[in-house]
Amino acid sequence: MSDTEDPVVANRRRRLKLWIDTNCDGSQKLFIASTNDGERQINQGELSGLLRSKSFGEKRARALERQSRMPIGYLDANEISSFAHLPQITPEKESVKSGNWPFKKVTPERLTALRRNLGEQKFTDALNDMEEMLESTIIKWERRVETNIDKSAAA
To answer: What stretches of 24-119 show up as alpha helix (H) in DSSP?
Structure first.
């Protein structure tokens, strides 16, 4: 079986592309810059190969996750995970009543309506997508903080 036919490798390629799209505004150049760990930096040819047909084994996946500061296991994560442990999302929750709900555009009412309209399984899939995007956004902002700390330390 070739790498392109292997579902694990195909998932790694999809997840790598998702990471680049969400954390580097779709820019491979920005992603490459983000992989400079002081010892090694991925180059354009290697990245193109990983996204297309180059061998992409577990060892390379873990090394790339470390280099680019992805959560370990990110490239192998299944896109569907269980959210059964989450509390019901309702506007009556105490955090919402006390004004601790952190989002203005995504209200508990909208999520409740989405759950009702999608059904439990599709809503779980939607929550998984939301969590992936939120994780990527948090990592992007963490990098900005790190960059600002590095700049202020250099000054």
So the answer is: 28-34, 44-52, 58-67, 94-97, 108-118
